[in-house]
Amino acid sequence: MMKRTFLLAAAATVGLAAPAAAQNVDITGATVATGDGSAPIRNATVSVRGGKVVYAGPDGGAPARETGSEIDGSNVWVTPGLFIPLTNLGLWDVGAVSNSNDISASNSRFSASLDASTAVNYASQHIAISRGGGVTRATVTTAPSDSIFAGQGAVIDLGADPNPVMKPKAFQLVVLGESGARIAGGSRTAAFAEFANALREAREIASGNRDSGDGLLNRADAEALGAVLSGEQQLYVHVERASDISAVLGLKRTYAGLDLVLVGVSEGWIVASEIAASGVPVIADPLDDLPSSFEQLAATQSNVGRMVDAGVKVAIGGLNGGITGPRTAPQFAGNLVALNKVPRASGLSWGEALASITSVPAEISGYGGRYGVLKPGAAGDLVIWDGDPLEVSSAPLRVFIDGVEQPLGNHQMRLRDRYRDLDESDLPKAYDW
Amino acid sequence: MRYRALTLIGGAVALAACSASGQSKPASASDTPAASAEAPYASTYTPYPSAETLIIPVRVIDGNGGDWENGWVHLKDGKIAAVGGPTSPPPDVANTVDGTGKVVTPGIIDIHSHLGDYPSPSVQAHSDGNEATSPTTPEVWAEHSVWPQDPGFSRAMANGGITSLQILPGSANLMGGRTVTLKNVPSRTVQGMKFPGAPYGMKMACGENPKRVYGNRGRMPSTRMGNFAVNRQTWLDAKDYADGNRKNRDLAKETLAGVLDGDILVHNHCYRADEMALVLDMAKEFGYKVSAFHHAVEAYKIGDLLREAGTCSAIWADWYGFKMESYDGIPENAALLQNADACVVIHSDDENGIQRLNQEASKAQAAGKRMGIDIPDATVVRWLTLNAAKAMGIDEMTGSLSEGKMADVVLWNGNPLSVYSRPDKVWIDGALLFDAQDPKRRPVSDFELGQPGEGDVK
């Protein structure tokens, strides 16, 4: 009997090559959180037709159901699929096994031109595990090593099919602050000089005026930065310290075309009104509260709440904090809700917290209204949860991407099933599959 | 957190203290009286003044399997004076704390921390956790590296309810040195934090780290078999010393002899199941006990062996994949071990994770429930309290809300197994050392004074 269960699980896991067609779905009587920052709605319906959401709201207003489309939503929650920025999904298998790890190209001659989309492995265990955690979309980036420019990140979906890349070369990542300073030669001044020079060379290349003898960047890297200069490609800038944040916001005075996104930003609360006035969105690592470097002496878990209160658009990403991986994003968001019960702390409302891992990151990536939200016209990315999605004890029951129900199996679940008991009285565990 | 740029971009490459290297420097003279030769660097900690307190009415999860609503906890003279339920009459105490809607537990204990040895800010000058100059350094003591001003201690208290913690040397070495158990009490000196009467531990490490660190230098060990050969020869030499007259003092062998005598507890960093099984045999070969395997991501494959050995598994809830030997980590590890009647401890190994051990335990509980293993809240809280205390040899003194034990207590503002709950108050030996309602009742380290964010909620 156990064997049969395993075979079914295996079929579901291995079925990458033949994605099912989008199905029409009506989840009724559920607790629905649309991801737009509003509070959850009880006794609500989500309807999907042809891979798109056509309705999300109270049961009473739902469209007519189709045969076979109904899913009983009593005792479950429904949210949009999570949209997690700044992941390494698909770029690595084992962190410390360098052959399996494409996160950092430390011996490459190239930097800004590196293109994360070329390396994304849709069959990665981390993608499968994250999908099982309710993550349906993500941005993926390489890490900087010998240059302050990490390369060009991609937007991916986590569907169990061979086409993960939604948008290659979606953004460029540059590190300023302490890590940029170290890479550039030991000082923030060097990092800013590298940055200014790189954009100058990009401008020369773009305008056909490059003095061939003068380039510090190779042609590919300088060409890649042309899209940053023009604003066609977003520029993600990693900084933490308040003064560094202000310096980055000041770059717009020199380079008017930059489409900036701030990343990290532990001390953002100190300059929150300045960030809000700039209109530059933030992707923050939300639970940093230690002075782990001199550039984040003022780190506090209230950082995100204070920035949001000041009017900054904040998504959660780059997740640290001793809890690893995109699948733990709801835990991070839930911790920000917890702050509401802590005197003098600033947290997020439940709806805002969910938005920080769904609609807000989607908007920052240019997908407002299309992903990370349940409203008519948005993609049929749904997660059905067995409880409050931000609570650590909850987990997805079913996941849909573009209306296609996804397999949720992975290596970890197979190990779990094999070692459910330690009985080897008939055969070794190796035959239990 | 060792390399901010990389960890920001993803935790995949972070190996925390386990891969760092650095040279420790001699500890500076302390401001305490000279310690005796028998107990050098002895604890100078004495409890801070406490008020007799009655927490009532409150849900009590006592750390020893008890869990009841509408109860009370009586703290007096720094001890747990009594606990009671709805039908037992509470004592008449002037100072009461309303626990309505709240939950009281024993203080949380982290069996695996590097606070103080790898403090914040995590700059090279602070990297004092791995004496990575020889594969066996049982002569070093983690306490000689602890910087009491590490701001991480205060975050662990205020957000994690941590009242006791074990600081271990890192895992670069097969035998990394002595551990130290601390009360999470701010102090000018490490002696002022040392847990009175706690036994020493000795850190050992299996697997990838020692063979990588020393193999990369072209010296033994460079393989797992090399790891065992160096360990076994070291134990053989230690037995000679332990069986001799011990008159010629040898700091390394004194630690090893302490293990063989049963006075020093072995805490063994080890990921893979097969390797843990070999270590258990090595312990048999030389006559010592492994108190706990730390990290133990594959412990679920050998729950039977661990139960028989009486060895705890100190584990994360769901870390996996950051190194080859962690590839088979699964979220159900704790639940499968509990189901096999093996001892589970949830640990952090991380200055951030130590602030959320309660949440990690809850995730592990829920993963079990989804596979049909129902583990009561009271058992899950024991993973964070009494089980840790047992593996550290301090369970007679703390780890449960039992009469006569130290009044190490956390009042949570909700269910501690919920992401939405935080400590409201933390008492250590009956002294109120954190109160979310009182802006001044929180520790601020010397390092933070006059800096941005001083005294902020963290």
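The radius of gyration of chain B is 21 Å.
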